[in-house]
Specification:
DUF3141, 3 domains, PHA/PHB_synthase, 15 strands, single chain, AB_hydrolase_fold, Rossmann fold, two-stranded antiparallel ribbon
């Protein structure tokens, strides 16, 4: 019966032979297309490496400086990025300098695509520069020479932008991060905010069971193998070995997933694969002395994070000398630079929060939950979120008071207050943190430090033996021709060399691939053989992941067992030493004397500055109780400043903010007591207007917490009392009646102003010289009171009963 519920649509019959045939045709075609992509990769490699200065920048640029022409020549160069059509560069905005890692790969990954570190800065209207480098080093260049070249580049950028509001922002990725930090420690006056992404600075740090790369030096017996590799390369170290170390960390991706993903999606994945391989396969070289310095002093010796490095001209490289805000961006998913290695330098250098404040350092850190090492400076999603937020709020970062902050990025929602004040799709805030928060992330273990200290000692011994008994023979046997062939036959470089049109067996693949594209027959997604292929791929990937976990676990147990042995530590010379294997670098007497002089200077300025300083002091006091700062509040300050015709420069605002923050940490009670003196001489309307403006700034973000509301109420009382006093002073006094006796409360309210020094000294002029030595912060003993924001209430005697 037509239309009855018993009718059934017959299911299409499944023919296994047809399914097998369709899968076989598709698999064969994908194999041909995969081989053609490999051929294109080889051609791309040869074309790329044949260039005089190869890079993978996606934007146009012009050459500015050639590092080979400097007094101490290097293979680096400075490029100016040309803004794309429709983008206008603002001469007032501070310039950006992006520095890529020279750690095996070629330059350009920071500007690899429009959504990148360079792309974000250019679209925001900042002048943008890029530090590039050549594949081959200058024969005589050293790590110190590169530092001098970077300083020269910054001098050139500063000279080109005299009207910019602030020194250049420097963005440095991976290896470039520690290189830039070394330069900033020696030439701090050249730097604006520094953003280091995925950059290791404390090389012994790491989480047990998760970060096996830090054990490599010990398992290989130290840095003697580095010297051997350089000698086999006729004085040059092949960066392909560094790339192979990265690839060995994840055998599943290296041996299977990366290539299988291309094979399975060859119709759509080829362009993305080739663009990445252009950078990944562009291996570069380092001088033997360069890589030996890096391995001995950083990877094995770990001397950077404890101020243990001294330049050839006697300057100690101490990261505490850096005066610019430092933004550390790292990720829990990064197995090359895990958060402990990115942040470990902070507890290595500073014993407590007071020392951070005493050295006038502002440190901001952001920890991503999952992104991998390359994703930190390559991923488009990271560029659109983290790098976009850092770039759009770089001026706010520059004026943050000294201390440790964690950057928090939240999504905008319909319920976000004043969402129009936040740039883009996110809201950036800076939450105050302390040394205990950082130590919890780093999770440093003294037993592990003792093991790594033993590795460093044994490495020196093995290197000395190699140099005395083996190196002369190796150097005598190696020729330039043998070094070149060993480089060309490197396991990572060989596939690029062989699979290209230069190989007559490979060239015909292009014609076959073209025919396949014309007659492409992709298999249906539900084909059972295709599903079986996916299952097999997952089996292989899982097996390799299990192998990786077993290998890493065995490496860690071996390292812990060998270098944790009392006998090995005794042979390394550690058994007879008490205390920690790495001691805190300490503070010089000169620095302590400077802190004392700076504290005395700040106390002398407590009553100077007027209404403008009082408003900033109020802002800092309430924000300290709130425990953080929000980009919406700073956006409102920026808007007010623009409406006032930029009467105060960004540098002046920064100097006042940092000075007032130091005063609060030095003596917060005195800061509050001198507020009435600052408000003297201002009109009642001006006082109330400043109060309302600061209230708008403070309430621009989320509602204030109870402590901040109490602090705000306290400030409102101070400002309102000053406004009433100013009103009373301006009213004509009554001539017929004698002045009434003031109640005791009024006397006490006026006491802070009366107790002020009668003659205030003029404030120092804001010159370039003073900016260099500015805010070295409060005395350590006074700063210790302010490990966390301290709110000070008025003494109980400030409000007495009337007589």
């Amino acid at each position: 019966m037509a239309g009855s519920g018993n009718d059934r649509v017959p299911a299409p019959s499944f023919n296994p032979w047809t399914a097998a045939y369709e899968y076989a045709v598709d698999a064969w075609q994908r194999g041909v297309l995969y081989a053609d992509v490999m051929r294109q990769r080889g051609n791309q490699y040869h074309d790329h490496m044949a260039k005089r200065a190869p890079n993978v920048l996606s934007m146009e640029y012009e050459f500015v400086l050639d590092g080979r022409e400097l007094p101490r020549p290097v293979n680096y160069g400075l490029l100016r990025i040309k803004p794309p059509e429709g983008v206008t560069v603002d001469p007032i905005k501070r310039p950006f300098l992006v520095v890529d890692p020279r750690a095996g790969h070629g330059p350009g990954i920071g500007g690899f695509k429009p959504e990148s570190e360079i792309g974000v800065a250019v679209r925001a209207g900042h002048p943008c520069y890029f530090a590039t480098f050549l594949p081959q080093p200058v024969p005589t260049q050293t790590v110190e020479d590169v530092m001098k070249a970077e300083a020269h580049f910054l001098e050139e950028i500063i000279a080109r932008h005299p009207d910019a509001e602030g020194k250049p922002v420097v963005v440095a990725n991976c290896q470039a991060g520690w290189q830039i930090m070394m330069t900033a420690a020696v030439r701090p006056e050249l730097f604006g905010p520094i953003i280091i992404a995925g950059a290791p600075l404390s090389y012994w740090a790491g989480w047990r069971g998760m970060n096996p790369m830090r054990y490599a030096g010990g398992l290989l017996g130290g840095s003697w193998l580095t010297a051997l590799t350089s000698d086999l390369g006729d004085g040059k170290f092949d960066g392909a070995w560094l790339v192979q170390n990265f690839e060995n960390l994840n055998p599943a991706n290296t041996l299977w997933s990366k290539q299988y993903n291309l094979y399975a999606k060859v119709d759509t994945e080829a362009d993305r694969y080739l663009s990445f391989e252009k950078w990944w396969g562009g291996h570069v070289f380092l001088n033997g002395p360069e890589i030996q310095y890096i391995v001995d002093n950083l990877f094995v010796g770990n001397r950077l994070s404890t101020a243990g490095l001294v330049t050839s001209d006697g300057i100690r490289i101490d990261l505490r000398n850096i005066r610019s805000p430092i933004v550390v961006f790292c990720s829990k998913g990064d197995n090359i630079t895990p958060p402990p290695q990115a942040l470990g330098w902070i507890p290595d250098l500073y014993q407590d929060d007071a020392e951070v404040l005493a050295h006038d350092q502002t440190i901001v850190y952001a920890v991503h939950e999952s992104i991998g090492h390359l994703g930190i400076f390559v991923s488009g999603s990271v560029a659109r979120k983290e790098h976009q937020e850092f770039t759009s709020n770089i001026d706010m970062i520059d004026v943050l008071p000294p201390g440790i902050y964690q950057a928090e990025i939240a999504d905008k929602t319909p319920d976000t207050p004043n969402a129009d004040l936040a740039y883009g799709k996110y809201v950036l805030s800076f939450e105050q943190r302390n040394m205990d928060d950082v130590r919890a992330i780093v999770d440093r273990k003294e037993d592990d430090d003792r093991r790594f200290a033993a590795v460093a000692r044994i490495s020196d011994i093995n290197l000395g033996i190699y140099r005395s008994f083996v190196q002369p023979w190796v150097r005598a046997l190696v020729t330039p021709q043998s070094a070149e062939w060993s480089q060309r036959l490197h396991p990572l470089r060989l596939p690029y060399e062989l699979v290209s049109d230069r190989n007559p067996l490979i060239a015909p693949v292009a014609q076959v691939a073209e025919q396949v594209r014309e007659h492409r027959q992709p298999v249906a997604p539900d084909n059972p053989f295709l599903l079986a292929q996916e299952m097999f791929s997952k089996l292989v990937e899982t097996s390799l992941n299990i192998f990786q976990e077993l290998r890493d676990s065995a490496d860690e147990r071996t390292f812990m067992g060998v270098y944790g042995s009392p006998l090995v530590q005794d042979l390394a010379g550690l058994g007879g030493k008490d205390g920690q294997p790495r001691r805190h670098p300490g503070v010089s007497p000169e620095h302590r004397r400077f802190m004392e002089e700076r504290a005395a200077e700040l106390r002398s300025l407590l009553q100077e500055g007027g209404l403008r300083v009082a408003a900033i002091r109020m802002l800092l006091y309430v924000a300290g109780a709130e425990g953080g700062l929000d980009e919406r509040s700073f956006a409102l300050i920026r808007k007010m400043r623009a409406e006032a015709g930029n009467a105060m420069t960004l540098q002046e605002f920064k100097d006042i903010t940092r000075d007032q923050a130091m005063m609060m940490r030095l003596d917060s009670a005195a800061v509050l007591q001198t507020m009435p003196k600052l408000l003297e001489g201002s009109s009642p309307a001006a006082i109330r207007e400043a109060l309302e403006s600061m209230k708008h700034v403070l309430e621009a973000a989320e509602p204030l917490n109870p402590a901040a509301r109490a602090s705000l109420a306290e400030m409102e009382r101070i400002f309102e009392t000053a406004a009433r006093a100013a009103t009373a002073k301006r009213e004509p006094s009554a001539p017929t009646r004698p002045a009434a006796r003031k109640p005791a409360a009024a006397k006490r309210d006026a006491a802070p102003a009366e107790s002020a020094t009668p003659a205030a000294r003029p404030r120092r002029a804001a010159t370039a010289a003073s900016a260099k030595s500015t805010p070295q912060a409060a005395v350590k003993a006074a700063a210790r009171k302010q490990a966390a924001p301290v709110r000070v209430r008025k003494p109980a005697t400030a409000k007495a009963k009337p007589e």
